[in-house]
Amino acid sequence: MLIELAQKYDLNVPRYTSYPTAPHFNESVTDDTYADWLAGLGAGAPVSLYFHIPFCDTLCWFCGCYTKIVNRYEPVADYLETLLAEVDLVAEKLGGPAEAKHIHWGGGSPTLLTPEDWRRAFDHIGARFAIASNAEIAVELDPRDTTEDYVRALAGAGVNRVSIGVQDFNAEVQTAINRIQPFEVTERVVGWLRRHGINSINMDLLYGLPHQTEARVIDMVDRAVSLGPARIALFGYAHVPWMKKHQRLIDENALPGAAERWRQAEAAAARLVGHGFIRVGFDHFARPGDSLAVALAEGRLHRNFQGYTADTADTLIGFGASAIGSLPEGYVQNTSPLKDYQRRIQEGRLATVRGRALKPEDRLQRDAIERILCDMKLDVNQLCTQHGVDKSALAPAMAALAPLAEDGICELGADKIEIGEPYRPFARLVAAAFDTYLTKNSNNGGARHSRAV
């Protein structure tokens, strides 16, 4: 029955790391808009910081990130200078040092920075922001480029969480996605991290890759768990070659169909639960003592552009080319072309070129989507009271959910919406019922997104 539903609902919907989603950002939000929003935060405001490093030294064919391949250090060094100059610009607009509660470095691959770069960067950031004593400082790490000196530098800079890209340990799968990373390479880097006191380790795994099977996915999970991660993100590979042309290098004939993807996802999830992990949302798993599992238990789990998070700050400031930020008034996004990004910062201008100011109905829909994806349920009365609206405001969404309810994917009550445990992988479809922009643009919007299950 569940496999039949997976085939029936093999649709493309957003992952909802924002709402409205990035395809609905526009140029009405400018650098001046962003400057005004920053000024409105006030000194001492709690914020999270995201730094984007858009470089890799090899191209992984599965990748959906904004990145540029380089084989020299000079472009990375030049970019870091611009990034730190952007930190100065943003700090000036704030009018006083905000308190950084979370700091996350992503890419691309931040591993292309040198140990000295990390020391400089954190000294610079610490001079412009008040970094909370209990701040989570996380870095995405590619084991293939990592040395022990590099790990030592991260620890010295205060990094206390690392997210390791694994994808799969199988050699045939790795060859098919152009990411050769033997298990021993990842194992060695994990050893270095623990030796230098970085014990909060996340791992990213993928299902739905070419040549993966249910048995191989189970083996992938067992090997990952043997390294003792605190969290595992289990993502379905998003094959979007119309957006990411390098994905055309992947043999589509080797990709699993909807039914096989379902079996892989469910087998991996069951294995992780069997290993003692707690399911967090629809694609994360955490050890019981991890902050993500604690946030889930306490009802304060959230989503942002890094996925599920225990971060409670209302403001996420994004630095770097293509970086997205979230403020109480709405979303902002930097320009993507590196030359344009660097030119704007060098001219003393913020790099924001698009975004989205939030309307009251956006906030209502956003909160509904977030609670569904975080809690697998929604208290309709609580939501409507919080936003000062009548339940009739949700009538279109409730009507859109009726077919899903008929198929058993969710339960609809007068005052609640709930997704049963077996139907957790369909959560994005339930959330999509509240996405009025997706409904209005169903013919051309769906192709921009990944498969729902």
Give a description of the structure:
The protein folds into two domains: 1-16 and 360-453, Arc Repressor Mutant, subunit A (Orthogonal Bundle), CATH 1.10.10.920; 17-319, tm_1862 like domain (pyruvate-formate lyase- activating enzyme, Alpha-Beta Horseshoe), CATH 3.80.30.20. Strands 10-11-9-8-7-6-5-2-14 form a nine-stranded mixed sheet, sandwiched between helices. The longest helix has 21 residues, at 74-94. The chain starts with a helix and ends with a strand. The chain has 453 residues and is of the alpha/beta class. It contains 17 helices and 21 strands.
What secondary-structure arrangement, pairings included, does this model have?
Layout: H1 2-8, E1 12-13, H2 31-39, E2 46-53, E3 55-56, E4 68-69, H3 74-94, E5 99-107, H4 115-128, E6 130-141, H5 148-157, E7 161-167, H6 171-176, H7 183-195, E8 200-207, H8 214-226, E9 231-236, H9 258-274, E10 278-280, E11 284-286, H10 291-297, E12 302-304, E13 307-309, E14 315-319, E15 324-327, E16 330-334, H11 338-346, E17 352-357, H12 360-375, E18 377-379, H13 380-387, H14 395-406, E19 411-412, E20 416-418, H15 427-432, H16 436-440, H17 442-445, E21 450-451
Parallel strand pairs: 2-5, 2-14, 3-4, 5-6, 6-7, 7-8, 8-9
Antiparallel strand pairs: 1-21, 9-11, 10-11, 12-13, 15-16, 16-17, 18-20, 19-20
Helix pairs in contact: 1-9, 3-4, 3-11, 4-5, 8-9, 12-13
